[in-house]
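ok new one. same drill as before - structure tokens go in, u give me an amino acid for every spot. 107 of them this time. try not to just spam alanines like last time pls lmao
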């Protein structure tokens, strides 16, 4: 080994996981902290667990709740005039409707 170019090696560096497990590995750092280890990673446990360090899941759920709330209050008007339109004009809206109409007219 060439001298003075290698970092100090710690043969039993202490690794602390956020799940509470502590184990040792060889490392150039004396102490390490991790969020996942083989004791708590979903791949090994087989259980679903979301690793959400930036609270993204919480933010998304908040957003969804907000969207749901606004969706239940607004579309009453929309669905109202949509049904009125449906009853008045018979032009096909979707490809399925178009095919259905074509079938009906041919037979
Ligand atoms: Zn862990």
């Amino acid at each position: 080994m060439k001298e003075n170019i290698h970092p100090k090696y710690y043969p039993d560096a202490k690794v602390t996981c956020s799940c509470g497990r502590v184990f040792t590995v060889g490392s150039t750092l004396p102490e390490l902290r991790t969020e996942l280890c083989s004791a708590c990673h979903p791949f090994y446990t087989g259980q679903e667990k979301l690793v959400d360090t930036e609270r993204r899941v919480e933010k998304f759920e908040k957003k969804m709740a907000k969207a749901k709330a606004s969706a239940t209050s607004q579309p009453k008007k929309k669905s109202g005039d949509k049904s009125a339109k449906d009853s008045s004009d018979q032009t096909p809206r979707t490809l399925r409707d178009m095919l259905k109409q074509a079938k009906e007219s041919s037979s």
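The mean pLDDT is 82. and btw DSSP finds four helices and three strands in the chain.
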